[in-house]
Amino acid sequence: MATDNDTPLLDARPSDRILALVMIVIASGALTFSRDMSIMASVFPRTIAVLLLVFSVALLAKSFVAHPRRVRPEPGSVGRRLGLIAVMLVWSFALKWLGFLFASVASAALLAGLAHYHAWTRRRLIGYSLALALIIGGFYILFAIVLNVPLPAGLLWRHF
Amino acid sequence: MDTLSFMAAALSPVNLMLAVVGVAAGILIGALPGLSATMAVAVLVPVTFGMSPESALIMLGAIYTGAIYGGSYAAILVNTPGTPSAIATTFDGYPMAKRGDGDLAVTLSTLSSMVGGLMGALALLTLAPLLAQIALKFGPVEYFWLAIFGLTLISALSEGSTLKGFIGAGLGLLLSTVGVSVIGADIRYAFGSQFLLGGVETISALIGLYCVPVLIDLVATPSAHLKPPEKGRGIRLGEGLSLMWRGKFNALRSAVIGTAVAILPGAGGSIASLVSYSEARRTSTRSDNFGKGEPDGVIATETANNATVGGGFIPTFVLGIPGTPPDAVILGALLVQGFRTGPEMFTTNVSVTYTFIGGLFIATLLMLPIGLLIGRYAFKSIVTIPKALLVPSIAFMTIIGTYAIRNNPFDVVVMVVLGIVGWVLSRYGVKPSPIVLGLILGPIAEQGFVQGYLIGNASGSVFGAFFGQPLSLAIIAMVLLSVLFPLWRGWRQRSSKETAHGH
Fold it and tell me: Could you give the CA distance from residue B310 to residue B332 in angstroms, rounded to a whole number?
């Protein structure tokens, strides 16, 4: 079992400083944008923003006076991670335009490629394609037909 | 005697069949990230309109029980709570699955859910009118402090620094203020976008913050995400039963906490499971193992969240105030059937009420065989599925689950963006649980805070409104304890290490 004790620790001061500064910006932004709100609407977000500011300043101060350590993040391929983020973002934006089914089939195929580390054989390709088609088709039927969820058909296909 | 005969009516073949179908449907829906217990009950309510009131209630209770339990599958196997009440199950359930004990974690979750469910149903049967009166003593300020208690607990319990836990909770609370304000209906932080008017949807955020980081790390390495179980181990029922026996006081305490928290309308299973997890960790002799795959952690959270099912029905039936969100849907179904909740449920409509309670007992007992059967195959299949199928399948379920909540493609964008933000934040030491709980408890905290502020202004002392009531002071004491206890324990561990080094 992996525990914190056998994981090498990193110096957390630089990352804590970045985190604290980002949170200070967010809290300050929340305070600034609450100026135009009524008292009833602004009292809670202002209180929370002030608390967030206090905690962030405390984290910043701690990074100068103490030597905090953090667990080393999970290693792995940066390219594949960025690829997954890109596919997920495009998928989420494409739902409205390409339609649920088309966007999902294309994105799922790309993700399968990203997550696969071995050589592609014809058998594997057919097997995985069939399995993905079954999963997507099954859930599409469950949501669109059984649960009557109006899944987007795609604005792009309206012209055809 | 009448009570027993009304309860025995739940044993009719039709009611038994409805309980089986309800539990299985609830487990399957609850196990899918994005489909909460509330949604499971809401989606299947129309199916019950043509049934007799007893059968309808039995089926809805069975769906609710199954869905709350089903939420633990995704929490254990993919580190994504299927329902918000399974958030704390990820703390130890997922580490257990990672080291190859996912089958044991699922078995423990099944046994604990059954124990919790039975205790909750027993409380509903015996203590309903008395307990409901206590819930009425909670005003807006008490609810505010209760929400703060939940947040301080999760911040202190989250892996890593407590300060970062508070930062995460603050961020979650701020996110909960996006959109139309709870009191006053002002538009806040929408920046002119009509999509942000509706605010950040909690379940979408939950899916994004828990699921997307798992996917990002899954594609990064070729190794399997969970250690496969040893061959021929089966469902490990014997091991699970012996662990349950060892943790019997933990289970009993968690069931009592779950029932008590559920009686407070709106508090729900997420607070119940966190409070019981915290208590289990505080009192355990193996407290250092919590968060690293300690079976007692799974027992505490799963017992508590299923105890909220019976507990939540207490204010629903006695006062007509739903204890948890799914109770609100069931309350609506009761109204459609022509029932008025309140004391009448225990006088005029006593046959329906006790048949339903009998049905709840049966559904909870049925959860054991059905849950063990589904759980066994769920773990085996999730371990053997190659990553090239697992990653797109989970991604697809997150997308369709998020979209289905409000039929809004923008929620899917928010889910993905929050997931990416959550992954970055977790590399900086801010874990998703405090952010998600901040989002869930934000509206409860804000409503209590603003109402308390207005009451304080009207009575001439805002300080008195927040710090003047005995009930508030008791919760504040628990808040302080939840913050100071981990700090004190950390200080004691450091000083004992230093002493050991000195020698």
Answer: 17
